[in-house]
Design brief:
Layout (H helix, E strand, L loop, with lengths): L6 H7 L5 E7 L6 H12 L1 E5 L26 E2 L12 H17 L3 E5 L3 H8 L11 H13 L1 H6 L6 H6 L5 H14 L3 H9 L5 E9 L2 H18 L1 H11 L13 H8 L5 H25 L3 E5 L6 H14 L6
Parallel strand pairs: 1-4, 1-5, 2-3, 2-4, 5-6
Helix pairs in contact: 3-4, 5-8, 10-13, 11-12, 12-13
Length: about 325
């Protein structure tokens, strides 16, 4: 696919009521970064990262962050913009992404949302409204309960009030568990119902939503090889430097895969071999949860690699989908 969409052509289409947007997502290690680069070059686009960890500076190896020299001149937004001691969540992401979108549209280009954090993508795609994020007394009470009783007992409190959230939110995702409990306490109805209502909103964008996938055996092999490469590149040293910088295990940045496991190793809580085993296992589980999330999403177009004879054939199909959606016109 060699066609390049010119800026003036895109500017004409930006006069439409709904502005164009491309989403490229999928499980970790499936190849989203390379594909988004090819798409950006083909449609004169810029990339907005929908990754919960690549936003942080100093965290390059464990996040498999794209290097500046690998960007091929394509502007990337929401990468290397926060200190690892800063908090980053879906509300922060949404605000930053909206600013990036405005910048891209002003240039007459097409934004490509690329990354594997489904909730972040959803927050932009459907312009989800979020509640007040100020720390409440009840949130502090729940945090204290977690510290005293642990993640499992906190998670059990969801079972009777929000069965959907209880099933969907992993007990180790303490922040989301607390938010679901807090939402029910404040409103009297489940956050899962609120999220369902928000997802049913009509998107303000003319979008095409691609989910890249691969054979599970191939995907898991890619995950294992990526982790091995991270270790060769100095993952342990990167985590140690973050701890020396003043990052602590309770910080959001240190909760990411690769970081929490290496922290356990550096603290002497487990061997390096055990830490790597847990990291590989949990990353496979994470990829599975990502796929479960995307299967629930409406309007997605699945791009299963084994079904295409070549990258060119796959891109041609994606290009056709974009044309059918009115995002491109040639």
């Amino acid at each position: 696919m060699t066609t390049l969409i010119q800026s003036n052509e895109i500017k004409d289409r930006l006069e439409m009521k709904k502005k164009p947007m491309v989403v490229i997502t999928g499980p970790t290690a499936v190849g989203k970064t390379a594909l988004s680069l090819q798409m950006a070059k083909a449609v004169n686009g810029e990339i907005i990262s929908a990754d919960s960890m690549q936003v942080y500076r100093m965290m390059d190896i464990g996040t498999a962050k794209i290097k500046p020299e690998e960007m091929q001149g394509i502007p990337h937004h929401l990468i290397d913009v926060l200190d690892p001691k800063e908090e980053f969540n879906v509300v922060t992401f949404q605000a930053m992404a909206k600013r990036a979108l405005e910048d891209i549209y002003q240039k007459g280009k097409i934004p490509i949302i690329a990354g594997g954090t489904g909730f972040y993508i959803q927050s932009i795609l459907y312009d989800i409204l979020f509640e007040n994020t100020e720390v409440s007394d009840y949130r502090m009470e729940l945090t204290e309960y977690y510290e005293q009783h642990g993640a499992h007992e906190l998670h059990q409190r969801l079972k009777d009030i929000d069965e959907v959230s209880y099933r969907e939110i992993h007990e180790n995702n303490v922040k989301r568990v607390i938010r679901a409990l807090e939402f029910y306490h404040d409103t009297g109805y489940p956050i899962s119902q609120h999220n369902k209502e928000q997802r049913s909103k009509e998107s303000p964008y003319q979008f095409v939503y691609f989910v890249l996938n691969d054979d599970r055996t191939i995907l898991y092999d890619r995950i294992e090889k990526r982790i091995e490469l991270m270790l060769e590149q100095g993952l342990v040293e990167e985590v140690k430097s973050l701890l020396d910088y003043g990052c602590t295990p309770d910080m959001i940045s240190m909760q990411g895969l690769g970081y929490k496991e290496m922290i356990s190793y550096l603290k002497g809580e487990c061997s390096l071999e055990d830490a790597v085993y847990i990291l590989k296992r949990d990353t496979r589980h994470f990829a599975k949860r990502q796929l479960t999330w995307f299967r629930r999403e409406p309007d997605v177009i699945w791009i299963n690699r084994p079904e295409y004879a070549s990258e060119e054939e796959m891109l041609f199909f994606m290009y056709k989908c974009m044309r059918d959606k009115g995002i491109i016109t040639d």
